[in-house]
């Protein structure tokens, strides 16, 4: 089944060079101009309503936490497109309909919500996973983005170190 593109754009689109470039790059990749969503976005809800869609989610220079919206969902990051030095697009699909998946032995993007135990940082910056981005929440959990080779090995190490694992997604 053919995937159709959806571009999420949280900024004003008028006279935005990155927005125009993003549409052009997506059209070049897919051969179709993307539908555009502005305003609030629930990534998983959009993909569940459009199971054959590919969502292009912009990450701007200096922004953090974009991946938190994917926690607990069935969406995965399947690719990354660099639009400009200030913007890259994360290519997100439902896991069951993903056209590309990470190959074994290749680094993947792993996101997790964790109730951390002592020694969390020492254990997690290892050969299994390296912290790439992190946010603390008011509830005392950590939303953390890791790069690593094996999601299963990552979860095993995380839980064996006494951390409470609440959810994990993604790979590219």
Topology:
Layout: E1 4-8, H1 17-30, E2 35-37, H2 43-49, E3 53-60, E4 75-84, E5 87-94, E6 108-115, H3 120-124, E7 129-136, E8 142-148, H4 151-160, E9 164-169
Parallel strand pairs: 1-2, 1-3
Antiparallel strand pairs: 3-5, 4-5, 6-8, 6-9, 7-8
Q: What is shown here, in short?
A:
The protein has 172 residues and is α+β, with helices and mostly antiparallel strands. It folds into two domains: 4-97, Periplasmic binding protein-like II (D-Maltodextrin-Binding Protein, domain 2, 3-Layer(aba) Sandwich), CATH 3.40.190.10; 108-169, Alpha-Beta Plaits (2-Layer Sandwich). The chain has helices at 17-30, 43-49, 120-124, 151-160, and strands spanning 4-8, 35-37, 53-60, 75-84, 87-94, 108-115, 129-136, 142-148, 164-169.
């Amino acid at each position: 089944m053919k995937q159709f593109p959806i571009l999420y754009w949280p900024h004003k689109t008028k006279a935005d060079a990155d927005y125009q470039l993003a549409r052009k790059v997506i059209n070049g990749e897919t051969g179709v101009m993307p539908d555009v969503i502005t305003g609030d976005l629930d990534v998983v809800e959009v993909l569940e309503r459009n199971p054959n869609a590919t969502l292009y989610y912009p990450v701007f220079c200096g922004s953090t936490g974009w991946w938190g919206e994917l926690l607990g969902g069935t969406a995965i990051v399947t690719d990354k497109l660099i639009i400009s030095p200030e913007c890259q697009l994360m290519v997100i699909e439902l896991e069951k309909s993903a056209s590309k998946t990470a190959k074994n032995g290749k680094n993947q993007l792993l996101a997790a919500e964790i109730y951390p135990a002592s020694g969390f940082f020492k254990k997690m910056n290892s050969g299994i996973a390296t912290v790439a981005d992190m946010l603390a929440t008011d509830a005392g959990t950590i939303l953390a983005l890791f790069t690593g080779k094996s999601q299963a090995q990552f979860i095993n190490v995380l839980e064996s170190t006494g951390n409470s694992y609440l959810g994990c997604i993604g790979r590219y």
